[in-house]
Amino acid sequence: MKFLLAPNAMKGALSARKIAAILSKTILRKYPDAEILSYPIADGGNGTLDCLMDALGGTVYEQEVSGPIHSMSVLARYGITREKIAVIESAESAGLHLLSPSPETIAQSTTRGVGELITAAMNHECNRMLIGLGGTATNDGGAGMMRALGYALRDQHSVELWDGSISLLQLHSIVWDPRKNISCPVTILTDVQNLLLGSEGATAMFARQKGASEEQLPYLELALKNFAEIVSRDLHCDFANTPGSGAAGGLAFGLLSACSSEIVSGIEYILDTVGFNDALASCDCVITTEGMLDEQTLSGKGIAGIAQRARQQQKPVHVFAGRVHGDEQRLTSTLGLTSLTQISPADLSTQQALRDASWLLADAVYHFQFY
């Protein structure tokens, strides 16, 4: 039997590469004669840089940049492919994994480091840029990124604002330095279709998991609303209602406003890039993974993209998830999965599940009857 391994990272626990190694070792222990095709994937979030650089080849660089809070500095990576395509993963500089989320951190959160990575990549004279969005601790609409690219954000007294989400409540004007223009086209890879504002916008849908309190939510929403209005007035563009503009705390909105950008499905782009369809045609079944599988998985997440392509070729898909939230039967049916297995017991704490993810995954796969 030929297994196609297409794992997505289990955020906070295991990278896609590590999961692929665990799956391969476990399957061969159970089925010594099995054939393994390994295609670790990503959907724009964590693991996107490694996935694309493995597929496209090139050099990965490190750069010290601002972290998700401007007072932090982090050593972040970016890639330049052989074809002079820059690959940037927003979570490298603004990732949720870089801090302990709280109301204080989200109030101060910034995407400045992403802009600094873009600037570093542009020094390589790249002709195109791929920016993966997801897994960020930020909710600043891309304002910090824009600052790093030469945009001045000022209050009513023409004083430069401090970095952070809440400070955007005081934004009165935006001034752009055209000498820092990004000359190459930018492709934004994302796994969500959320708008910037509203009941399914960046704040309403994602701010809580980034540390926001219930009392903060209206202020964070008003800050983004004010930012969007000033961008529309001063930069003469309006992307707040573009599907996907709310990705990564609105970073997609900032990129659309500051660069010559397009938003595409991260999982579709990556599956095409790694040659997933050819591998799929030659396999007997697909195994994929996810840290948490819930209703959001249905709209643009990695498993949804994999399952859709597998259905087209009538290949069974087996999913192993750290946690499953929601109606398991409905999720399995809607996604068209052959099986869905939660690898951690329901009574196991999240902290312990993350710590024990390696052996929980190996144990679940080893005891599963694939044939």
Short description:
With 371 residues, this protein is of the alpha/beta class.
How much of the polypeptide forms β-strand, as a percent range?
A: 15-25%
How many strands in all?
Answer: 13
Task: Please give the CATH class of the largest domain.
Answer: Alpha Beta
Query: What radius of gyration results from the CA coordinates?
Result: 21 Å
What is the domain tally?
A: 2
Order of helices and strands: EHEHEEEHHHEHEEEHHHEHHEHEHEHH
What's the story with the biggest beta sheet? 6 strands, mixed
Top keywords for this entry?
single chain, 371 residues, alpha/beta, Rossmann fold, Glycerate kinase, domain 2, 6-stranded mixed β-sheet, 5-stranded parallel β-sheet, globular
Task: Characterise this structure.
With 371 residues, the protein is an alpha/beta fold. The chain folds into two domains: 2-39 and 275-366, Rossmann fold (3-Layer(aba) Sandwich); 48-266, Glycerate kinase, domain 2 (Alpha-Beta Complex). Helices cover 37% and strands 20% of the residues. It has helices spanning 16-30, 48-56, 91-94, 103-108, 112-122, 143-148, 202-206, 217-235, 247-258, 266-274, 276-281, 302-312, 328-335, 350-355, 357-366, and strands at 2-5, 35-38, 58-66, 73-81, 85-89, 128-132, 151-154, 173-176, 186-190, 261-265, 285-293, 317-324, 339-342. The protein has a six-stranded mixed beta sheet with strand order 3-4-5-6-9-10, with helices on both faces. A five-stranded parallel beta sheet has the order 2-1-11-12-13, with helices on both faces. Helix 12 (302-312) links the parallel strand 11 (285-293) and strand 12. The termini are close together. The model has no long low-confidence stretch (mean pLDDT 93).
